[in-house]
Amino acid sequence: MTRLSTAKISKLWTLILSIALFSVIFTGPYQATINSRSGRDYASYHYAVKAAVQGENPYTVSTLERLAKEEGHRKRVHPFFYPPTAILSVLWTAPMGLLSGYHAFFWFNQLCLVATLWGIRQWRAVSWNTILGCTLLLWPVMDSMKMGQINLLVGFLVLVTLRYRSGFALSAASMIKMSPALFFFAWIVERRWKAVLSCVLGCLGLSILTLPWVSFTDQVLFYTEVLPQFSSGAYHGLSVPINIPANHSIPDLYNQLFPGAKQTILSDLAKRLSSLTTISLFAYLLWLFHCFKSDESKLFVSLSLVPLMLITPVYTYEHHLALLLVPIVLCFETLKTRSVSFRLVAWLILAFGGQPLFSLRWLQREVGFGDWWFQESKFFFVFFVGAYCVWYAYQVERKESSRCQ
Predict the structure, then answer these.
(1) Which of 6, 318, 327, 337 has the fewest Cβ atoms surrounding its Cβ within 10 A?
(2) Domain positions in the chain
């Protein structure tokens, strides 16, 4: 009877969390999407696709703005600074106008989210309550939908990469956003040559597949001119200050200590310190890949690469943190044998770290002290997720080592 009652209560919670998630999505990002007249961040993808289909260079900002003015929705467009093959992921929106494409992309994001949640469930048998609870509290998932960003697709591809060690999935993720390429170097350390080879071939194949829309010259332009600017903050002409409160990155911290002449470019010292910190953290994680033997411990070291790839670029916005969904869900699954108080603290940490920026700003104003700590709380939250992944990997490795003795 007790088991039956527990099962019924669990199902009831699943129903409640499902309704809550549905309600949040369709009263938050959905309403923001259908009421937007600008297409938000999606506009950069949209006009890059328009340019590519017309045989023009998607990296020429003036071209994107000309196309936007012709459609009559906006006068300015943020530059398109993603790899050329990212065009393929939104090519299907080419026949649509800006707003219809933006609306369609919202539904595409829903498919990516459902596929990710279902994939986690099938892979690790995580309870639906944990999956839905983590998704509900991680507001950047909603923010990514609202902004028309592509993080949920990348997150799904990262899930496939981790589950199957799929080189092709990693090549697709890395050729949409460059940062997942960190997994490639981990595979080299682990000597997973088959996955490494399939990733290389996947990258080459996707680049060739993109040639009808983005010429070889324009693809070379991205890798030789656009990409090298990332380390300084000069994102191909992006005119957003590095020190905005919604930036959660290592370079932003150093920029606060050693600001440059302009707030859109890192100072040389901030740039060097950012690179040194990133390389040191990455080298440490690669060393763990070399030392650890257990597949489970290596999985959690792999998960720690996700927070690292979030906080290392010059700009880490709220919507980027949607990529934390898979690591957070798997971390919470490790807590199922912990005490109720331990799990409660973990849920409170997620509720605070994953909260919307507007509620964080409200708390910051109402509390009246610790302004900087509130401002950087998202950064510390991301770092904490990565640190927990590493800590848990150590615990697993220690247990496995003791069993073998």
Answers:
(1) 337
(2) 39-230+247-404
